[in-house]
Amino acid sequence: MEINSNTSPKSGLAHQSATAATKRFPQLDNGELIKTSFWISQIFMIIATVIGVYLAAQEGLSQAITFDNLTNKQNNYYLRQALYDEVNDNVNIINEYADFVASKAPYDIKNHHPVMANFVWENMRYSSYTLETPSTLLSQTRRFYMQSADIIDKMEKRIYGVKYGAGLLKTLTQEVSDNTLPALKANYTALADELKRNDIFVDR
Known about the structure:
The protein contains 5 helices and no strands. The chain is mostly helical. It is rod-shaped, with a radius of gyration of 43 Å. It starts with 8 loop residues before the first helix and ends in a 7-residue tail after the last helix.
């Protein structure tokens, strides 16, 4: 029997080891690698896009909320400033009326009925910003309008004497001048300062 001299036990073992290694660690096709890397890159691109859109949406929402908040503060500023001007004018009207009737004591007192401005106060009921005004300021303003109207009505009906009624009016306007008006002015001034810090300037 003739033995192949090219074959040896060692070479046979080497061949078997190489075959086993090939089965255990199969060689990857370059085409497959390219396809795999392509899909991985696509997945990361999608993830990055989703994250980018989410962050942009969050930033946009934050800016929208900030803008809406500042717009509300600006509208509140003008509303409260207008209320201040109206109440201040009415305090002067009531003081002039009280001084006149106390000094002249006119018989036809109804003919000298003071005409108070109430455009802002009446229209505040239709404004969505009214209830954003501090309730203390609204209550003090409401009492001023109600009490002054009540005192004047009782003076005209002779329930109150002219001088007595005038004294009540002066006390009422003094309280408004000392408390309500300064608090209202400080409130809308604080709004103006906050708006200025955000580069929004309002007329003072």
